[in-house]
Structures are given as structure tokens and as C-alpha cells.
Amino acid sequence: MSAVLDHPGDHAHGHAHDHPSGWRRWLYATNHKDIGTMYLWFSFAMLLVGGVNALLLRTELFQPGLQILRPEFFNQLTTMHGLIMVFGAVMPAFVGFANWQVPLMIGASDMAFARLNNFSFWLLPVAASLLIVSYFVPGGATAAGWTLYAPLSVQMGPGMDLAILALHLMGASSIMGSINIITTILNMRAPGMPLMKMPMFCWTWLITAYLLLAVMPVLAGAVTMVLTDRHFGTSFFNAAGGGDPVMYQHIFWFFGHPEVYIMILPAFGIISEVIPTFARKPLFGYSSMVYATASIAILSMIVWAHHMFTTGMPVTGQLFFMYATMLIAVPTGVKIFNWVATMWRGSMTFETPMLFAVGFIFVFAIGGFTGLIMAVAPLDIQIHDTYYIVAHFHYVLVAGSLFALFSGTYYWIPKWTGHMYDERLGKWHFWASMITFNITFFPMHFLGLAGMPRRYADYPMQFADFNAVVTIGAFGFGLSQLIFLWMVIRCIKGGAKASDRVWENAHGLEWTVPSPAPFHTFETPPVVK
Amino acid sequence: MVSATSSGTPYYFVPHPSKWPMVGAIALAFFGFGLASWVNGAPFGPWLFAIFIAILAYMMIGWFGAVARESESGLYGERVDVSFRWSMSWFIFSEVMFFAAFFGALYYARSIATPWLGDLDHRSLLWPDFQATWPNAGPAGVVEPFQTIGPWPIPTLNTALLLTSGVTLTIAHHALKDNRRAPLAFWMLVTILLGFTFLGFQAYEYVHAYSELNLKLSSGIFGSTFFMLTGFHGFHVTVGAIMLSAVLFRILRGHFTPQRHFAFEAAAWYWHFVDVVWLGLYVVVYWL
Ligand code: HEM
Ligand SMILES: [Cu+2]
User: Fold this and answer.
1) Among residues A151, A383, A317, which one has the least CA distance to residue A249?
2) Structural contact between residues B286 and B150, judged by C-beta atoms closer than 8 angstroms
3) Helices B20-39, A158-187: inter-axial angle, 10-degree rounding
4) Where in the sequence numbering do the catalytic residues of A fall?
5) What percent of chain A has pLDDT over 70?
6) What is the distance between the alpha carbons of residues A174 and A87, in angstroms, rounded to a whole number?
7) A-proximal residues of B, 50-79, CB under 8 Å
8) C-beta neighbour count of A375 within 10 angstroms
9) Which atom number of ligand 1 is nearest to the Cα of residue A86?
10) How far, in Å, CA of A441 to CA of A448, rounded?
11) CB-CB: which of A115, A158, A215 is closest to B15?
12) Mean pLDDT lowest among A1-10, A53-62, A507-516, B126-135
């Protein structure tokens, strides 16, 4: 698709109020690009905070026995690592991408609700401060695991209440953000862009936003019940009063499984933008891609109990959830097939975005396969709550979501900053991440199969060797991310001037505006032909 | 800032930098820290929470006031109107899902947890005397005996009140579309009064439950689901009534035209949503 633009970016002349400066520019922001930037920096900061938590955990686990952490504190770190990474790093990062890219890709002047957009963002630092303060209250932060299972979560100290309220705020932020994204995509596409010609990234975000709307309120309900069980005498999760702790798991996973797709669908969208550019071929099977995304989202709402095979479910329930889960592999397979078919006989080059995209396909597929193995109920009963699960979800979340985020950053950062990033740093970052990621997480499969349970501060001697390897890998992975930070800073400060199109074969409206994208774009909608 | 069409309405209105989102975020910081310290018994908890309410009220008045001014000065074109419609619909959808969590908990407790607690294993090993019926006070004897509230008379009256308020609201809408302002204001007022009467009955019912039936939030799973479902519904009625009152306030100031009055419609959609949730409650909580 191509676009005709009338003098993009030149409207702002003489309108000083349109170029707010100083602190007001950020605190009072109503510009999707500024708000997107804030989302991205916030999520990167959270990635570092969550990463430090993880490295503390790995230091403790370097050797058997207790070295540096009390077990109670270890459990707090595990919990907070999960909460911060899921709700603070990965989810906001994708919202940051949506903020920057969706209006640029559909030819809209901004997000549909610019002030609401800023409200969504600023709730996140508030929620993060609730979480961080919770380390310092009596009893410390919550240690119930990121899933906050009752009855443990009903018993803990004030740190748990702070976590619950933080989740409420982050949930409200996600709901408002989703409404904004849905409205923008449905109502503000440039004339001449029907839904079925919309860039795949926008499609995946549209579907993700619906998932968020459907399940974030359910999480809010679940943690509200925990709060009232804790302080107001209700018995939702208390069998003595007629409730049931397993009910918590049902409600939580009704949110929790769609949540994992919330964190991967926009990643699929980024990969579907990057691969066609560097394969110099249009995306293979566009409409099957759309339908696959939608089917994944719908199926994801009916598979939640595959997290609960060990709770004593009736066998019919186990069978239903097992087969439903395996079914998701079909649309996921369609996607992987389409990406590979896009590359097939393409004229490929491997700049950093493409490296991360191809790397994504490899490692994400491993995570998908381990998912299938765990979907088999009799197998899962053996490996549930072992390091095998930890391996699985880091393959899909780190090598999946995070690698896609990296891919997207390298892909669009020239548009954001106006400078090319340093390709050499990018390649270093990719190879260092890829190698250390696998050193960290591959041995976890063996540990899990050998029976090492997750979420413990100590382990028997026979697991020592692999754990030492894992810890070394983890530090390597952590350090590799500093290359990324360095690359970003250098790219903001300077570098080769990026052209408007940036990549030889890049298609889409975002490549028709100058690099860096001016403060205001598409104030009159472009005409898409 | 935004290129204007001939009528002066921009193609799509993008607001200038605004302090209100920041004010709202600060309010919610007081909410989080205030509620967390309150439920843990810190003396300053209620104060922090009161500050939250105050800042929130300030933000709502300021923010919605700004929106109303922009709307009245014709900055919102066709597109913005469509945006408002999409966003309100999907917001209501998210509210439906919030209630779904609590309805789901009620279903689970009645149809899965209760039979489980009364099955053979639990009977022979733990609680030989537990009768797996609904309502129940839990198997372990930790809940004091209580009586429940049937559909008659108050819940049925409340159903009638809410359904009537839906009708009066529709009458008001027709008056607005025909540009008959006096009946419009009158029927809005009636709707709001019906809403508050509902809330009054609900409050009476709660007092009755606590003081005479010994039915409390802590009355086992029955009390939990009963009060949380009806309580959250009552809270939503309150929010809806506040929305309608704000709309009435704008009507009295001469806002809205027969063609353009989305704030009215949004409040009305919300009110009907609250109505439908009540019908669900009436059947599932009081009747069955
Ligand atoms: C083919 C697709 C997938 C299948 C069949 C699958 C299956 C499963 C199963 C059965 C479990 C439960 C294991 C247990 O606790 O015993 C699980 C856990 C998990 N999965 Fe997946 N999964 C898939 C994709 C994904 C994706 C795309 C993500 C995220 C991006 C993800 C994130 C997670 C997480 C975070 C957990 C662990 C939750 C916890 O217990 O803390 N999965 N998966
Ligand atoms: Cu799952």
C-alpha cells in the first residue's frame, strides 16, 4: 500500500503550545509518541528491576544450601520478579509499541483519547511504587508467587494488600489502554484502509485488546475476593465457611491463560512486520494470519485448567482441557508456517531486527513444543511445578515476547530517533542474548524432568551442576542487556541519518513520514491506495 | 493544531496537554496507599483515603467539565462521536466481565464446591454432619446460624423500581430528541429519584439482614457471595445515579441538542446495564 501525504509535520509552526517542553511535556502529555516513549522507558526500567531480582535468586541458587538470602526473602523475590516482569515490563512495553506505531501505521493523528492515554500510563509508576514499597512494610513483600494462590495469599502481611491494589491499578491501566487502542483502530484508520488491509501488528493488538477487556476485570474480581477474605471475613477461598481455595485457581487462570497470549500476540504482530521487510516479500497468508490470531484468542479462553491438572479435577475435565489446549497448537502452527513461507525464496538479509525475528521463531517454537508436552495431562502431573514449567514459560516469554520486543525496537528505532542504530552493537546484543538465554534456560528442562521443584531457595546435591551453569548463563544474559541499553542511548544521541523509508523493502504508512517522525503526523488523514 | 474543516470542527480533536490525568494518578496513589494502610489498621489510613476521594472529585469535575466545554464549543466532530460510542460500549463490556467473576464464584460455590464438601470422602473423614444444601453455613461450624432474604417484598419492589426507571429514562430521551426541555428535566429527575429510592431500600435491607437475620458478610460463602454481588451492584447504581445527575446538571445549563447528546446516551446505556445486572441478581441470588 502506498500513501500520498500533504506536507507532513509542518503544521506545528507558530503553535508553541503544541510543542510542550520541560516537565509538562511528559507529565501532562497528550501526544501518542511521547506517551509511547514513556511506556517504553518505564518498561525497560522495570525489566532491569525485575532482572536484578532474578539475578539475586540465581546467586542464591548457584550452589546448594543457603548462601545469601533467607528463604522468606527468596520467596518474596520470586513473586516480585514474576509480577514486575509480567505487569511492569512485558505488558507496558507492548502498549508502548502500540502507542508509537498504531497511529502511524493506520494514518491517525493520535490515539482516540489522548488524555486517557496519559492517565493509563501514569497509573503504572503509581502501581510500581506500591509494589516496591511493599518490600519495606512489616513482613515484606508478598511471597505467594505471581499467581497469588489462596490460601497463602489470604494469610500474608500488608505487602500482599499493596500487591493487590497495585494489580488493581495496573488492571485499570490496561483496560483504559485497551479501550483506547480498540477505538483508535476501529474508528481512526485512514480512508481506504479496510480492516483486512490493516498491518498485522494492528490486527494482533486489536485482538489482544479484546482479550484484555475480557480478562483483566476477572483478575480484579479474583484479587478483590482475596482482599475481602483477608480483611472482611468473607469465605470465598475458605473451605471451613463453604468456599474453596481451588476456586481461586479457576478464576485466576481464567485470567491467567489469556494473559499469556496477551503477552505473545503483539509479539506475533511485530514478527509479522519484520519478516516480510527483510525477506523482501509480502507476508504469506495474510488472512489466515488474522484468523489464526483470532482463533488463538478465542481458544485461549477455554483452556485455563491445564494449569490445574494436579488439583483433583474430574477426568472428563482433564480430557477437555487437555484436548482444547492441544488444539491451540494448530493456529500457532499456521503462524509459524506462514513466517517460514514468507522467507521461502525471499531475498533475505540479516540485520538485527531480522536476526531477532528468526531467532524468535526457533526458540519460541521450542517453548511451544514444551507447552504441548505439558498439555498432556498424565505427563503434566509429573512435571507440574518443576523447573520444566519454568523453562517452558521463559522460552515463550523471554525468547518469545522479549525477543520480539527487541526485534521491533531495532526495526522502528530509526523512525523514532531519526538515526540508524549501530549494527555491530545490535549483532553483539543478539548473539550474546541468544547464547546466554539458552545457557540459562535449556538446562532447566533437565532439572525439571529430574524432579527439581520450582520456587525453592535450596535443592539437593544432584542438581548442583546444572544450577551452576544456569546461574552463569543468567548473569551473562543480564549483562547482555546492557549492550541494548548502550545501543539505545547511542542511537538517541546520534548516528547515521535514517532515511524516511529506513529499510529497502519496508511497506506501510509509518515509512512515509520523515525520520524522526515529527511531533504531529497525519493531522489530515493520508489517502491509502 | 488540527487542520480544520470548513465548519471549524477539526477532523479529529486532539486535546492540548492536560493536568487532569496526572491529578487522577496522584489520587489513585492515595487510594492504593490509603486503602492498604486502612485495612491493616493504620490510623492515617482513612485520612489518606479521604484525600483520595477529594482529589478524585476534583479531577472528575475538572476533567469532565473540560470535556463538556469542548463538546459545547463544537470541537467534537462526527469521528469523535463514534469514538465515544465505541469506548463506552467496550467499557460496559469490561464491567460485565467484572460481574461475571462474582457470578462465576456463586455458580462454582453452589454447584461444585458445596457438593464436594458434602461428598463421601469429606463426610467420612472430616464433617459427618454437613448437609450439602444451598444456602449453607460451611461444614466446619465456624459460621453463626443466619436466615436469608427471599425475593419478596423488597427485591421485587426494587426490580419494579429499576425497570420503571428504565422507562422514565427512555421517556426523557424522547423528550430530548423532540427538544422538549421541561419534560426532559422532569423525567430525568424522576429517574434519578427512583435510583436513589432503590438504594434506600437496599440499605434498609442490609440493616435488616445484619440486625435481625444475622446475615453478614462473614456468614460463610452465602454471605460472601450475597453481599459482594448485591454490594457491587449497589455501588454501580450509585455511580450510574451520579452520572445521570451530572447529565441533569448539564441539561439544566442548556447543554445538548436533539441531534448531539452522547453524554446522555452513555449514562443511559450504563443505567440499562446496571438494570440488566440487577435482573440477573434477582433471579440467581434471591430466587433460586
Ligand atoms: C502452544 C502453546 C502453549 C501451550 C500448549 C502451553 C501449555 C502450558 C501448560 C499446560 C502450562 C501449565 C504447566 C504446569 O503448570 O503444570 C503452561 C504454563 C505456562 N505457560 Fe504455556 N503454553 C503455550 C504457550 C505459552 C505462551 C505463548 C506463553 C506466554 C507468552 C506461555 C506462558 C506460560 C506461563 C507463564 C506458564 C506458567 C504459569 C505458572 O504456573 O506460573 N505459554 N503452559
Ligand atoms: Cu496456560
Assistant:
1) A151
2) yes
3) 150
4) 81, 110, 146, 173-174, 257, 259, 261, 272, 306-307, 332, 335, 454
5) 97
6) 9
7) 63, 79
8) 21
9) 35
10) 11
11) A115
12) A1-10
Q: Which residues have a Cβ under 8 Å from the Cβ of B62 and sit 6 or more positions away? A: B20, B23
pLDDT (0 to 100) of residue A431 = 98
Selection from A509, A491, A497, A353 nearest residue A430 by Cα: A353
Q: Write the Ramachandran bin of B179: left for phi over 0, alpha for psi from -120 to 50, otherwise beta.
A: left
Residue with cell 491445564: A306
pLDDT value at A8 more than 70: no
* Residues B118 and B125: beta-carbon distance below 8 Å: no
Please state, in angstroms and as integers, the Cα–Cα distance from residue A13 to each residue in A8, A260, A517, following that order: 12, 44, 16
Span A429-448, pLDDT tens digits: 999 999 999 999 999 999 99
- 3-class SS at A239? helix
The pLDDT assigned to B119 comes to 87
CA distances from A329 to A153, A337, B234 (A): 33, 12, 43
Contacts of A406 (CB under 8 A, 6+ apart): A356, A429, A430, A433, A484
Containing A527, the helix (H) or strand (E) segment is strand A527-528
Beta-carbon pairs below 8 A across chains A and B: 240
Q: Which residues, in sequence order, are bridge partners of residue A4? A: A527
Residue A331: asked if its preceding bond is cis (omega within 30°), the reply is no
Cα R_g (chain B), whole angstroms:
23
CB-ligand 1 contact for A112 (6 Å cutoff): no
Q: Which amino acid is at A37?
A: T
Q: Give the mean model confidence (pLDDT) for residues B233-241.
A: 97
CA triplet A118, A122, A124: central angle to 5 degrees? 130
Question: Taking a C-beta distance cutoff of 8 angstroms, is the pair A51, A478 a contact?
Answer: yes
Residue A14 region by backbone torsions, left for phi larger than 0, else alpha for psi between -120 and 50, else beta: left
| Distance between start and end Cα atoms, chain A | 6
How far is the C-alpha of B189 from the C-alpha of B186, rounded, in Å? 5
How far CA B154 is from CA of A389, B41, B164, in Å, comes to 52, 35, 15
Q: Quick check: A338 and A284 in contact, CB under 8 A? A: yes
Alpha-carbon gap, residue A23 to A517, rounded angstroms: 21
Helix (H, G, I), strand (E, B) or coil at A453: strand
- Give the number of residues written for chain A: 529
Ligand 1 neighbour A396 (Cβ under 6 A) = yes
CA B42–ligand 1 middle distance (angstroms):
40
User: SS3 breakdown of chain A: % helix, strand, coil, rounded to 5?
Assistant: 70, 0, 25
Residue B191 identity (one-letter amino acid): T
Residues A147-199: tens digit of each pLDDT: 999 999 999 999 999 999 999 999 999 999 999 999 999 999 999 999 999 99
Instruction: Write out the three cell numbers for A164.
Output: 493487590
**Whose CA is closest to A524, among A6, A2, A3?**
A6
Identify residue A480 by its one-letter amino acid code.
S
For A131-165, give the DSSP string.
HHHGGGSTT-S--STTTT-TTHHHHS-HHHHHHHH
Cα-based distances in Å from A103 to A32, A81, A272, A308, A354? 8, 32, 18, 40, 23
Contact across the interface for B16 and A133, Cβ inside 8 Å: no
pLDDT at A3 over 50: no
| Alpha helices by DSSP H, chain B | 20-39, 45-72, 78-108, 114-117, 120-125, 154-177, 181-208, 220-252, 262-281
Give the mutation target among A328, A381, A396, A398 for probing the ligand 1 site: most ligand atoms within 8 A of CB: A396
Phi-psi region of A102 (alpha: psi -120 to 50; beta: other; left: phi over 0): alpha
| CA–CA dist A31, A115 (Å, integer) | 9
Q: What is the pLDDT of residues A388-411, one digit of tens each?
A: 999 999 999 999 999 999 999 999
Phi then psi for residue A4, to 5 deg, are -110, 130
